[in-house]
Write a structure and sequence with these properties.
The chain is mainly alpha-helical. It is built from 23 helices and 6 strands.
Length: 582
């Protein structure tokens, strides 16, 4: 009896979340609070692990250490070995690549398998906790978005609502980590959902506020970058910072290319995947000995770089070593994100840029603090994407609207140049290397799911290819069907015959109807999606296409009019979902 009562309440809740916007917002608040709490716990445990492995004093973070004991650096290959063992276990358990939140929202309607979330979170935790040059942001996003996906699927939410809830959970976890609700919200819009949708504004905002409030209640110390702006008063500064946006775009492309090329190079060496992280950890040891600032995400190193006056040569050295450490970490199989690493590298680029301008143009001084903040946002946009996300991060750090306007300008310049020259953010670039074609988290999954096999008309009118024209007329009266499919002796597709064509005056009624057949070689397989089907129609200039199996057997028939109507209907449905009108 109690079970049936619980089930009835669950069904009522599911109906309420699907039908009531206010109820859905409350669900987003719950997801945001849970995501924020999990992000706090994950960051705390990873920091405790680093304290244990590297004997960090007090509240010092790994990247804030001036030196590290050489024996402690053995934690890097140890973490790599642990990742290798996890890789071997996952090979036996699940062979496919885990789905992250961006891929889930772009291709799978927000469905993130919970085991994939645990896998990505665990790999990222080990990588960051043992000191590799990666951030925990990928784990925060995965645990927040993955939890939201599980809850949303429990309640059988609609596709658009599930995608929104995944974005809300991800944004809440990121916002909780940085203590910045606006940053978390726009991370959800730009990186995870892929658009600023009216229907998503309230639930995403409510979730991120709940996540940040939960983190503060738990007493978590956020990653929020506290910095003071000195103010921008000269018109030349605007032009200089636009130039910085261009420079950050090239650095971002270089970083993404370096990671992918090193990954490809490691794969070509034939080194077993399970051994790659351990070898990467060994290679990280000398880098960590020279510059501990290159380890982990770089939180404290970023703050120290912002607050202190570091010589240009040292800035360049740390920049080069951090780039190398991040490339080695990801190229050799450590798991994590480049979110905070790109923020730290951006601060270094900004400081270097300001010092170089001072050397080349004496008297045209750029305030290093402002340059560092602009570089931080512009490089992060180049690598991660999300110009509004990074602009709000600077706004929540400085409370300076004038500087934020400059940051937004430089970020948009960097974003435009990266799209023009490269076309991907780091997350979508790695998916591209796996063979996917997505460039953002916008929902294109419905395009993938709507295939020729699902749209075709089964059992079209068919006749043997050796039928005479006279027999064709007898068996297919004019007006009964617009076309007939011909099949050869193996029951394979042999062409299409328009019915009206067989009734043209002057035809030899004893001749084979194959003389009237059209497009005997123009076919399509059932797995082709609707976008590819329309491209084939455009390329061939035909009105009908036969859908055939790989062995040539006829499966069905597609008409261009039907395909284009289905596409228009699905596009209109997606547009209604976008504006919350469904």
């Amino acid at each position: 009896m109690r079970y049936h009562r619980t089930l009835r309440y669950f069904v009522i809740l599911r109906r309420q979340f699907r039908q009531s916007e206010a109820s859905f917002i409350l669900l987003a608040v719950l997801v945001g609070a849970l995501g924020g709490g999990l992000a706090v716990a994950l960051g705390l445990v990873a920091h405790m692990l680093q304290h244990l492995l590297y004997a960090l004093p007090g509240t010092t973070r790994l990247s804030g250490m001036a030196t590290l004991q050489p024996v402690r650096l053995l934690a890097l290959p140890l973490g790599g070995a642990l990742l290798g063992l996890l890789h071997l276990a996952l090979q036996r358990w699940r062979r496919r690549t885990p789905v992250d939140v961006v891929e889930a929202n772009a291709l799978h309607g927000g469905a993130v398998p919970f085991r994939d979330s645990l896998t990505v979170t665990g790999q990222t935790f080990i990588s960051n906790g043992f000191g590799a040059s990666v951030g925990l942001e990928a784990a925060y996003a995965q645990i927040g978005g993955g939890l939201a996906s599980v809850i949303g699927r429990w309640f059988s939410l609609r596709r658009s609502d599930l995608r929104t809830l995944v974005g809300a959970g991800t944004g809440a976890a990121i916002g909780a980590a940085f203590g910045a609700p606006l940053t978390g919200a726009f991370y959800a819009f730009e990186i995870v959902i892929g658009a600023y949708t009216p229907a998503a504004i309230a639930p995403v905002a409510a979730a991120t506020i709940a996540g940040v409030a939960t983190a503060r209640t738990l007493g978590a110390v956020p990653y929020l970058i506290t910095a003071a702006s000195t103010g921008i008063t000269r018109n030349l500064d605007y032009l200089a910072f636009v130039g910085m946006g261009l420079a950050c775009a090239f650095v971002g492309i270089l970083l993404m290319r370096a990671v992918s090329l090193l990954e490809i190079g490691v794969r070509k060496t034939g080194l077993p995947p399970a051994l790659r992280p351990m070898v990467g950890g060994i290679l990280l040891m000398p880098i960590a000995y020279l510059a501990p600032q290159a380890l982990s995400a770089g939180h404290e190193a970023l703050h120290l770089t912002l607050a202190s006056d570091v010589p240009l040569a040292m800035l360049c050295a740390i920049f080069g070593l951090k780039m190398l450490a991040s490339s080695v970490s990801l190229g050799f199989g450590f798991r994590g994100g480049l979110f905070f690493a790109s923020l730290f590298l951006g601060v270094l680029v900004g400081r270097i840029y300001a010092d170089v301008v001072e050397l080349l143009l004496p008297g045209q001084h750029l305030w290093t603090q402002d340059a560092a903040l602009v570089g931080m946002a512009a490089l992060a946009v180049s690598v991660i994407g999300g110009p509004m996300t990074m602009s709000f991060l600077v706004l929540e750090a400085t409370r300076d609207f004038q500087l934020t306007a400059i940051v937004l300008t430089a970020s948009l310049v960097a974003s435009a140049l990266v799209r023009e020259l490269f076309g991907y953010s780091f997350s979508t670039w790695r998916l591209h290397l796996r063979g996917e074609v997505i460039k953002s988290a916008r929902d294109i999954g419905w395009v993938r799911q709507l295939t020729a096999g699902k749209m075709m008309r089964r059992a079209p009118a068919c006749l043997p290819a050796d039928t005479s024209i006279g027999e064709f007329r007898r068996r297919t009266p004019l007006g009964s069907t617009s076309r007939v499919v011909l099949l050869n002796e193996k029951n394979h597709y042999a062409g299409l015959v328009p019915t009206a064509q067989a009734y043209v005056d002057g035809l030899d009624l004893h001749a084979s109807v194959t003389t009237l057949a059209r497009h005997p070689d123009d076919t399509i397989t059932p797995d082709r999606n609707i976008a590819e089907v329309m491209q084939v129609f455009d390329r061939l200039g035909v009105d009908d296409l036969a859908v055939v199996a790989p062995d040539g057997k006829l499966l069905g028939l597609l008409t261009e009019a039907h395909v284009r109507k289905r596409y228009a209907d699905e596009l209109e449905s997606a547009q209604r979902d976008l504006f919350g009108e469904s």
